[in-house]
Amino acid sequence: MSLPSVAPIPVVVDSPHSGLEMPPEFGTTAPMAALKTTWDAFVDELWGDAVAFGATVVTATFPRAFVDANRREDDIDETLLAEPWPVALTPTDYTQRGMGLIRRNALPDVPMYARKLSVAEVQARIAQYYRPYRRALADAIRDVRATCGVVVHLNGHSMKSRGNAMNIDAGVLRPDVVVSDRHGTTADPALTEWAAAWFTERGLRTQINVPYQGGDLVRTFGAPAEGRHSIQIEFNRALYMDEAQFTRGPRFDELRTLCRDFVVALGRHAEALT
């Protein structure tokens, strides 16, 4: 967690999928090129300047391909396990498509493992990586809400420029930005509309809740009636990086500046939500 270096504003940014430090116990057989497609490359850097303008920033260092902090804890694919899970599981559509708490595939037809995982090792991933990340984010949101009277949680992600066979929009070219609030349930819809309009006014093709409606983190922490607004923001990777080479593109600094300006504007806008 990175705390603000100036007076705090009512904004918490988190990036759960920008980590790429491979834990030694991972044991995946997927090639690195496939694993990198699951990585929200450089999203932590895009939003990293937010601390200099009063926001709190929480970022994961472990990869989502190892354990996904943006899934429910019981969103587990039983076919990956060497023995039964000790309690009932509730796998979602993400698990059915190979992208649950523990991924089945890195890419279509590219399996993550050539073995079954023990219950103990999955439980260790949850205890040592997943829960600490979620606790850190929960603490940040609680503290900023207590200090400022309201908090906007900005859940940052990136998306492939075109969906693949594991996505609900397979083969479809995506917009520049998707702003999501699980159809008005995790943030005041007026805030979501304001955020989308902000990006649209700066020349970016922006959609709301299509093709992404918002994941488990915004579902968990968004409670507009209690002064906690959670929105998910997805940037098209073609905006700022070379998707094939996994390198920063010529517009990286431009988008990073845009993220900084958005955080400043969001902080001012959020004050009116109290």
Describe this entry's structure for a reader.
The chain is α/β, with parallel strands linked by helices and 274 residues long. The protein has seven helices and ten strands. The strands form three sheets. A six-stranded mixed beta sheet has the order 2-1-5-8-6-7, sandwiched between helices. Helix 5 packs antiparallel against helix 7. The protein is globular, with a radius of gyration of 18 Å. The two termini are 25 Å apart.
Task: State the shape.
Answer: globular
| CA-atom Rg in angstroms | 18 Å
N-to-C SSE string, H for helix and E for strand: EHHEHEEHEEHEHEEEH
Task: Give helix % range.
Answer: 25-40%
The amount of beta strand, in percent, is: 15-25%
Strand order of the largest sheet: 2-1-5-8-6-7
Helix count from the secondary structure assignment: 7
End-to-end Cα distance, whole Å, is: 25 Å
Task: Note the quaternary state here.
Answer: single chain
Give a short account of the largest sheet.
6 strands, mixed
What is the total tally of β strands? 10
Kindly report the average pLDDT value. Answer: 96
Class from secondary-structure proportions:
alpha/beta
Low-confidence residue ranges: none
